[in-house]
Amino acid sequence: MSSMSHKHLTQQEFDEAARISLDALNSCQPLSLKDRLSIPVQEMPSQDPIIRRENTKEVALGYTENQAKVEALRCLQCKNAPCINGCPVRIDIPRFIKEIADGDFQKAIEVIKENSLLSAVCGRVCPQEVQCQLYCTVGKSLKNVLKSVSIGRLERFVADREREEGNIKAPQGKPDTSKRVAVVGSGPASIVVAADVRREGHSVTLFEAFHKTGGVMTYGIPEFRLPKSIVKSEIDTLKAMGVEIKTNFVVGKTRKLTDLIEKDGYEAVFIGTGAGLPKFMNIEGENLVGVYSANEFLTRANLMRAYDRGMAATPIAMSKKVAVVGGGNVAMDSARTAVRLGAEEVYIIYRRTENEMPARVEEIAHAKEEGVIFHTLVNPKRILGKLQAEAIECLRYELGEPDDSGRRRPVEIPGSEFVMNVDTVIIAIGNESNPLISQTTPGLKCNKWGNIIVDENCKTSMDKVYAGGDIVLGAATVILAMGQGRIAARSINKLLA
Ligand code: FAD
Ligand code: SF4
Ligand code: SF4
Question: Which of 18, 39, 86, 450 is paired with 486 by a 20 to 30 Å CA distance?
Answer without folding.
Answer: 450
